[in-house]
Design brief:
The structure is a single chain. The chain is of the alpha+beta class. Among the domains are: 128 residues, PAS domain (Beta-Lactamase), CATH 3.30.450.20; 200 residues, Histidine kinase-like ATPase, C-terminal domain (Heat Shock Protein 90), CATH 3.30.565.10. Helices cover 51% and strands 18% of the residues. The protein contains 16 helices and 17 strands. The strands form 4 sheets. A 5-stranded antiparallel sheet has the order 2-1-5-4-3. Helix 1 packs across helix 9. It is found in: Cell membrane. Its main location: membrane. It is a multi-pass membrane protein. It is an enzyme of class 2 (transferase).
Length: 595
């Protein structure tokens, strides 16, 4: 009579063997699947990173080339022949046209030699057009007949025009155009309806970007509307442009980054980096299937490893189970004690085999955990000071760029005294802001710091605003306050409140003492654009980019004084300016050892 065996009737050792085999198979399959997934993920990330680096480098090269072009054109527009021509145009003189045309030909040649990417330069004025004599002019078309004229009138500032056939000169070369308004000294003369058109060789710019497809990566230059800047022949690029896939990427994905998009059902990696002079982006397209095509080998290796592991597990499982069962039980007992928060438990090591080594490492791990718990407790005590330093170290790089740029142009315009004042103010600003590494400074130094900042901004934005600082009690000037307390508030007024203004702005800083409440009240008000109530509440919740400086300040005050010890209020309505009130204790900050 046959005896029927079931799982329940199998010997315990056989159960362990089957369990071991099942676990081995599952582990191999899970490991293989995870290995494949992780390999694919790593390969994707590496490919995206390498492609992004290449795109960033290409964007840097194109930026440098276009920046050099801008420098060449600025030099062109401050040359004496160009300025003499503008003076004649401003005075309405017609007789000197050919003399100016001849004088400017040398300047045209110098610009084209300085930047070989320039195909031609054309200057449109109400008194006639100026252009290099070496280039054949198409006299049937003027600048006002081209779409570029309507675009710059609508834009109101310098524009970049995507690739097109040149209508101003014969040959109908493919060019990319930069349309500039001239730099003039408005105190001596003024000109209207004068434009400088710089035609850049499209083929030269295309060579900077690189070939259409290298190792499965297709690169192109697109405008802010998602259209190619240069003429493209790749079917993949035409499909991407036709589908409208590129436009939301360059408009909403930031200055640079990488996303995955589907094109006709196939996933593509899209990397992009923006240029600094305009809203153009370098974009690369790479098929995900092309990136992962080498993983077929890994699939077969996973299958072979799984089959080999199963065979090996079947051979050694019974003996290994007998050998490991008793010591594993002891280790399990120790683990259960640790699971119950008994960190004093230790595995009793006998022998020197691998399991003993595991036990020893387990003991060391427990010792490290105890040590790490102590380190975490100690680290918490310094976390607050570290966060304060990180928050207070933020400085807008655009402010420094604008300041240095203003100093440069004032020097170019021979305004040496103003430039000296700006350099001194900038030096003093950083000296007071750094404060020898101390997080707290006196109110006197904080007022000096914000004065330097406001004076620099007044040089950068001439006639935009004026300011007033009022301190009710001279005794407050020695009050110890966090450094860089006032500058974020006036920065918010200038950058956001006066954004649509050209003049008439006013900022008032009032510092008063509330003796009864033992608090210092700081009020910063302006007559700028203001915000609605919802936006003001969002600033206080630190959930809006527009109120970033205020959100940073709120975080710092909470870290310095603790929750509830300091208060900040925003009173604003659209079109009626903004008032920010801060109240801090006259004493009681505990940052950096204060109490």
């Amino acid at each position: 009579m046959l005896k029927v065996l079931t799982l329940n009737t199998l010997p315990f050792r056989r159960k362990l063997t089957f369990s071991f085999l099942a676990i081995t198979i599952m582990a191999v399959l899970v490991t293989g699947g995870l290995s494949y997934t992780l390999s694919a993920d790593i390969l994707e990330r590496k490919s995206k990173t390498l492609t992004q680096d290449a795109v960033n480098k290409t964007a840097q090269i194109v930026d440098e080339k276009l920046n050099k072009l801008m420098v060449v054109m600025m030099t062109f527009m401050i040359s004496e022949p160009f300025k003499e021509m503008l003076r004649s145009v401003s005075a309405g003189e017609y007789d000197d046209y050919y003399r100016h045309l001849s004088n400017m030909d040398n300047v045209f040649s110098q610009a084209r030699i300085a930047e070989p990417l320039i195909h031609s330069i054309y200057v449109s004025t109400p008194r006639g057009d100026f252009y290099p004599m070496s280039v054949n002019r198409n006299h049937t078309v003027t600048f006002k007949d081209t779409p570029m004229y309507d675009r710059i009138l609508k834009a109101g500032h310098n524009i970049w025009v995507e690739g097109h056939e040149d209508e101003l000169f014969t040959g109908r070369q493919r060019v990319i155009s930069l349309v500039l308004e001239p730099i003039t000294d408005t105190t001596l003369y003024s000109v209207n309806d004068v434009y400088v058109v710089v035609n850049i060789r499209e083929s030269g710019l295309r060579r900077l970007i690189g070939p259409d497809a290298v190792d499965g990566v297709t690169r192109l230059l697109v405008s802010g509307e998602g259209r190619p800047v240069t003429q493209e022949t790749s079917p993949l690029i035409r499909q991407a442009v036709t589908s409208g896939m590129l436009r939301p990427i360059v408009q909403t994905a930031g200055d640079r980054g990488q996303v995955t998009e589907k094109l006709h059902g196939e996933p593509y990696f899209v990397n992009h980096a923006s240029l600094s002079l305009n809203d153009w982006h370098i974009v690369s397209l790479q098929s995900k299937d092309h990136v992962l095509q080498d993983l077929i080998y890994i699939k077969w290796m996973i299958f072979i490893i799984a089959a080999g592991s199963l065979a090996a597990a079947a051979l050694v499982s019974s003996g290994l189970i007998r050998y490991l069962l008793i010591p594993l039980g002891r280790l399990q007992t120790v683990m259960k004690r640790v699971e119950s928060n008994d960190l004093s438990a230790r595995f009793e090591v006998k022998g020197g085999d691998e399991l003993a080594q595991i036990g020893m490492r387990f003991n060391r791990m427990l010792e490290q955990i105890v040590s790490l718990i102590d380190e975490v407790k100690e680290a918490e005590t310094t976390k607050r000071a570290t966060e304060i330093k990180a928050l207070s170290a933020q400085m807008d790089p655009h402010f420094l760029y604008n300041t240095l740029n203003t100093i440069y142009w004032k020097l170019k315009l021979n305004k040496a005294e103003e430039s000296q004042h700006m350099v001194v103010s900038l030096s003093r600003l950083f000296q007071l802001g750094l404060n020898k590494g101390q997080e707290f400074t006196t109110l006197t130094n904080e007022i000096l710091h914000v004065k330097q900042y406001l004076d620099l901004q007044k040089y950068c934005y001439e006639a935009l605003f004026h300011y007033e600082i009022y301190v009710s009690d001279p005794g407050l000037e020695e009050l110890s306050v966090p450094r860089i307390l006032l500058q974020p508030l006036v920065e918010n007024s200038i950058l956001h409140g006066f954004r649509d203004r050209e003049s008439g702005g006013f900022i008032r800083i009032a510092i008063e003492q509330d003796e009864a409440a033992r608090r210092c009240r700081i009020t910063v008000s302006d007559n700028g654009a203001g915000v609605d109530e919802a936006a003001a509440r969002a600033m206080l919740r630190q959930t809006t980019e527009k109120g970033y400086a205020i959100g940073n300040l709120i975080s710092r005050l909470q870290l310095y004084y603790g929750e509830g010890a300091s208060r900040i209020e925003i009173d604003s309505r659209l079109g009626e300016g903004m008032t920010v009130r801060i109240e801090i204790p006259l004493e009681g900050a505990y940052a950096n050892g204060r109490s």
